[in-house]
Amino acid sequence: MTGHVEARAALLLLADGRLPAGGHAHSGGVEAAVLDGSITGLRDLAEFLRGRLATSGLLAASFAAAVCRSVRTAGPATELAADVLAVFEAEVDARTPSPAQRAASRAQGRTLMRVARAAWAVPAHPAAPHHCVALGIVAAAAGLEPRDAALAAAHASVNGPATAAVRLLGLDPLAVTGVLAEIAAEVDRIAAAADTASALRAPERLPAGSAPQLDLLAERHRTAEVRMFTS
Amino acid sequence: MHLEHDRPLGGGGAPAASGGAGPRWQSPPGTPAGPAPTDRALRVGVGGPVGSGKTALVAALCRALAGRIRLGVVTNDIYTTEDADFLRSAGVLDPGRIRAVETGCCPHTAIRDDITANLDAVEDLESDLGRLDLILVESGGDNLTATFSYGLVDRQIFVIDVAGGDKVPRKGGPGVAGSDLLVVNKTDLAPLVGADLAVMARDAAAMRGGRADRPVLFTSLRSDAGASDVADWVLAQLPSPARPQ
């Protein structure tokens, strides 16, 4: 009697900041930026988030969408083709020059895969893929579309760092929500661009947005004497 | 491995109110702790407010147990790796047996709401070191409501100290009321801060429903560097094949 109902609730679950997927311990460079004085308040934070979204956000969203598309095309496999995933992993590695960022991405990929295995039919391997690769795998397992995976990745690229800024600077959380709402349309745009790219391009030609300042912040953070966030 | 315990803190049920003094979070009647695991290390959480002596207690337990059972420690610092560094420098345990988890300003989140990074850490300890008997998971200093998820640990110890005042047990909360073992630390300071240990013992027992399976121990690590009563309790939690003779 019922027609096809598009999966929406699963997307909300996947993008929920309270999803126990390990993200709460990562600031995405915000802690290092607070320490070096480049984020001191709401305006700085908004600019930081816009820059992050346009670079590493686009990259993550493109790979999440591409992996989701690849898994969906391959059918409801319980074990993903290792060679296909290895290509995506290598491409993300090549786009992530900071070892600290690669480690943070894989740590979050591992924790996301853990919670996803409790929620959906997600295979045991890969155990610790890049976070954006994990998002693509999980989105497909949750019955979501590539554009949903892209949106979740783009959202995560700003939402977690914004929360970290609230904790680190004592910013007004309501005002920070206002900032996130301001850039929500950009999140949608980035997700749409990522989805389109994932449909048209091979893995090696997916967006390679780069933010040298984020790389430097990540590297500096790993050697900081005092550190509250993992990244 | 996620423990998938279906065991609420304090054994389930709604918070109860005590007469007269307003509502308190008391221990409801419930089920005893589940059986100790036999296919991996027993995981024991050590939580409690800032400064109550969690790290010192973990160091004491290492001192007492490291030579007797296969032991690992995971720390959850508020920031950086202060507690892990302290344990390493105290020389009570091989540094390779200590892992630090960073908690993003939210120690309670890492032990209760999002335990994934801690699960990674406890699993990594056993995959790197081989089979262990016991892993102590020390929380970052938080407050009276910060307790462990039973998806992460099998047992939890909540540590308070007399210097916070003898009213602390009366305040209750999930840690005081529902932990498997309540430790009241720094008893040597009681005369200096005017804390009445008998009052603390009475209030703690009341908050914990007077249950024999949920004991309260009083410790002074200054006079007992191996926290022998706590160490004995921990050993008694191990499955019998893992218990040293």
Automatic annotation (TrEMBL), chain A:
Q: Which domain of life is it from?
A: Bacteria
Q: Which InterPro entries match?
A: UreF (IPR002639), UreF_sf (IPR038277)
Does this entry carry the keyword Cytoplasm?
Answer: yes
What's a Pfam family in this record?
A: UreF
Annotated compartments? Cytoplasm
Q: What is its main location?
A: cytoplasm
Entry-linked HAMAP family: UreF (MF_01385)
| Role played | Required for maturation of urease via the functional incorporation of the urease nickel metallocenter.
Spell out the protein name for this chain: Urease accessory protein UreF
Taxonomy-wise, where does this protein's organism fall, top ranks first?
A: Bacteria, Bacillati, Actinomycetota, Actinomycetes, Frankiales
